[in-house]
Amino acid sequence: EKVEVPPTKAYITLVGAGADKTIIEWGDSADHIGKDGKPLGTFGSATVAVNSPYFCAKNITFK
């Protein structure tokens, strides 16, 4: 699943077991067609979207 951290959720930390062991990946790209029949675009194709203040991620890979 895609991950979204909204602006109302501050101080979120994602901690993985190692950058080579914990990988969050999704197969979308900007030119993929969304539910509305239009390309997702750069913003819509994000695997992880963080809009939260004080977000921290460590020992994790995002693809």
From TrEMBL:
Residue span(s) of domain Pectinesterase catalytic: 1-63
Presence of keyword Hydrolase: yes
SUPFAM superfamilies documented for this protein: Pectin lyase-like
Enzyme Commission no: 3.1.1.11
Pathway where this protein functions: Glycan metabolism; pectin degradation; 2-dehydro-3-deoxy-D-gluconate from pectin: step 1/5
UniProt xrefs under Pfam families: Pectinesterase
Listed transmembrane segments: none
GO biological process: cell wall modification; pectin catabolic process
Keywords: Aspartyl esterase, Hydrolase
GO function term, MF aspect, one: pectinesterase activity
Recorded family membership: Belongs to the pectinesterase family.
Protein name: pectinesterase
